[in-house]
């Protein structure tokens, strides 16, 4: 069974609709795919309809953008209750912060003569989607400033860029507790990535595990062989499951569906650990 537990659609920063992501998963020979858009569950219904018609299993999830001591931390929450009040409030706060953050970044860029406006960025955001830096990238592409998203991030939008502005992000340990409270299962996404600014230490993962963290995303293209070995050893010591996934964004990144996979046994463990309110759709 081929299982990919980390993908994004146009509900956040992917380039395909949720239905198109599921169709692409079917074309890639996946048996199960998870939709894990940033700070939103708005793509779930469309993805579920597509999964039912195409015979693909669907894990409904979300990727929560967190922080810890200045480091960016991403947390995958699988099978959460989308109506949980704490989760709803957290997502609303995150979305509002992203709006003000993107406007501030565009203002900084415009002051340096980079020819885009916030209105041009907003035009790149589908209705109901979570705004993010990829939408600035798309506006830069449309304006002819860069050729693609990769060039936009390398030149203007990286965490180390002079135009980078932070947005609200919950503490990673608190986010784990929130996912658990919402009946879901928390997995730390690409914990030791070398491409996302400051790396977290084992001590944070230990604290997250104490709060209810269930697993580590070990097999990810941003993990070097050494990072994978480190994550696998840490997961073994803490009794966490290990997952693998693509972090697929459609044309927004080079990541290929199914390039890293999760075992059926791990998926079964995730489903068993959840509250059952939001089951895997088989």
Tell me roughly what share of residues is in helical segments: 40-55%
Number of helices: 10
Strand content: 5-15%
Quaternary form: single chain
Question: Taking strands numbered 1, 2, ... along the chain, how are they ordered across the largest sheet?
Answer: 1-2-3-4-5-6-7
Strand tally: 7
Structural class: alpha/beta
Q: Write the element-wise H/E pattern from the N-terminal end onward.
A: EHEHEEHHHHHEHEHEH
User: Gap between N and C termini, in Å?
Assistant: 12 Å
Task: Based on Cα principal axes, name the global outline.
Answer: globular
Averaging pLDDT over every residue, what do you get? 94
The main sheet comes to: 7 strands, mixed
Return Rg in Å. 18 Å
pLDDT < 50 runs, ≥5 residues: none
List the defining traits of the structure above.
282 residues, alpha/beta, seven-stranded mixed beta sheet, 10 helices, 41% helix
Describe the structure.
This protein has 282 residues and is α/β, with parallel strands linked by helices. The chain has ten helices and seven strands. Strands 1-2-3-4-5-6-7 form a seven-stranded mixed beta sheet, with helices on both faces. β1, α1 and β2 form a beta-alpha-beta unit. The longest helix has 27 residues. The chain is globular and about 55 Å long. It starts with a strand and ends in a 9-residue tail after the last helix.
């Amino acid at each position: 069974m081929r299982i990919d537990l980390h993908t994004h659609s146009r509900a956040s920063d992917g380039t395909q609709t949720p239905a198109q992501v599921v169709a692409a998963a079917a074309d890639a020979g996946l048996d199960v795919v998870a939709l894990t858009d940033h700070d939103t569950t708005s793509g779930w219904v469309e993805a579920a309809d597509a999964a039912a018609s195409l015979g693909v299993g669907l894990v409904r999830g979300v990727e929560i953008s967190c922080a810890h001591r200045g480091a960016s931390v991403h947390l995958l929450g699988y099978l959460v209750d989308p109506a949980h009040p704490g989760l709803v409030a957290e997502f609303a706060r995150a979305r509002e912060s992203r709006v003000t953050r993107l406007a501030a970044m565009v203002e900084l860029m415009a002051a340096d003569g980079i020819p885009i406006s916030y209105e041009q960025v907003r035009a790149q955001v589908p209705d109901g989607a979570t705004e993010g830096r990829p939408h600035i990238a798309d506006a830069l592409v449309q304006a002819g400033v860069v050729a693609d998203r990769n060039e936009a991030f390398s030149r203007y939008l990286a965490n180390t860029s002079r135009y980078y502005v932070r947005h609200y992000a919950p503490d990673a340990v608190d986010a784990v507790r929130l996912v658990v409270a919402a009946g879901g299962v928390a997995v730390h996404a690409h914990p030791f990535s070398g491409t996302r600014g400051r790396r977290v230490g084992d001590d944070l993962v230990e604290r997250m595990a104490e709060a209810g963290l269930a697993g580590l995303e070990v097999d990810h293209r941003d993990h070097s062989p050494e990072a994978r070995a480190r994550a696998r050893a840490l997961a073994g010591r803490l009794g966490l499951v290990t997952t693998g996934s693509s972090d697929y964004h459609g044309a927004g990144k080079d990541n290929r569906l199914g390039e890293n996979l999760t075992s059926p046994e791990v998926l079964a463990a995730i489903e068993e650990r959840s509250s059952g309110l939001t089951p895997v759709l088989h």
